[in-house]
Amino acid sequence: MSPIDRAERVQEFVALDRRRAGGNPPLELAELTRWQELRDQLEQALGSPPGDAGNRRETLRVRTHLKVQVSFGTAQRLLGVYNLSEGGVFLETERPLEVGEQVCIAFVAPGRSAVELEGRVAWVRSTPDDWGPAGMGVELAPLSDWDRALVAELVEAALLG
Questions:
Q1: Nearest 5°: phi and psi at 140?
Q2: Is there a domain that residue 53 lies in?
């Protein structure tokens, strides 16, 4: 995908994604189908692992260089976010937590105060491979409209940056 094609697809995707997330007005079936096509094309262009029909994520996953404060139990770590979507994050770490462990992740978006999101470790990658570094995938707990808007802003910033 050429840089011009990518930029045009990003702009089209962002406009549809804002309507999809906000529901005002809701996407029509043809628009939702186009949103899904653009999501798949952008993920492929961004080097995300291919999804399969039975394990398709509902939102776009983008690479980012955010740093977040992760709290679990009585401990805290500052970790890098390798990729981010409205449904979860992949945190880079050589010492991933156990699957199922609950975490709190403090995000900061430009011009906003920190927002803490709850989640649980859904899977771990113990050693780096072709798809990314060692770390852990964290599934976010259901988001409020406010938190969803913040995460959507972070996704857009990474996509446009």
A1: -75, 145
A2: no
Whole-number Å distance between alpha carbons of 126 and 97: 10
Query: How big is the CA angle at 84 (ends 43 and 139), to the nearest 5 degrees?
Result: 115
Structure tokens at 146: 């406010």
Angstrom CA distances, 9 to 33, 34, 41, 129, 158, stand at 14, 10, 9, 29, 15
Structure tokens at 30: 């043809």
pLDDT tens-place string over residues 28-50? 999 989 988 888 888 877 766 65
The model scores a pTM over 0.85? no
Does residue 99 lie within any of the structural domains? yes
- Is 146 found in the same domain as 92? yes
